[in-house]
């Protein structure tokens, strides 16, 4: 089922309605849709590199707005939020996640927002745990913008050859990104 959905989203990336579809996929992925917007963003940038940063902006704005919906689902419709988390197989980690959010909520949002982990998990959990909303929105903008603009820059600059390598080793690149981010934070705190 997910493969069909993935293929459908990828075909949208090549249509004349690609930009609005990118916005819709980015918006819904942050709150309930299972396919990440990168599936559309990458081929759109490869097809029109001169619009790379425009596409990254569309993706970022829509993702942050969708994140706000995910937050609202968790905050106002907690039962629906828990149902979505159950559907994604994450409801059983609720208590551990609550403790993690209470101790390191901002870092959870920043780190998880950069990884391939479904962002809806973070947005819904942020609402359920009543994380500070203005800070949540700011962190979403930073992390999602960082992810989509980095992707746009890499694809615009290096094109299809790099995309093949990134897709082949996506988990490795995500881990490297997290290690660099954590290392930078530790270095700043030590200064």
UniProtKB/TrEMBL annotation:
Keyword Transmembrane helix annotated: yes
Domain VTT: 55-149
TM ranges: 52-77, 128-150, 170-188
UniProt keyword list: Membrane, Transmembrane, Transmembrane helix
Cellular component aspect of the GO annotation: plasma membrane
InterPro entries attached to this UniProt entry: DedA_domain, VTT_dom
Pfam families per record: VTT_dom
PANTHER family for the chain: ALKALINE PHOSPHATASE LIKE PROTEIN, DEDA FAMILY PROTEIN
UniProt protein name: Membrane protein YqaA with SNARE-associated domain
Species for this entry: Brevundimonas basaltis
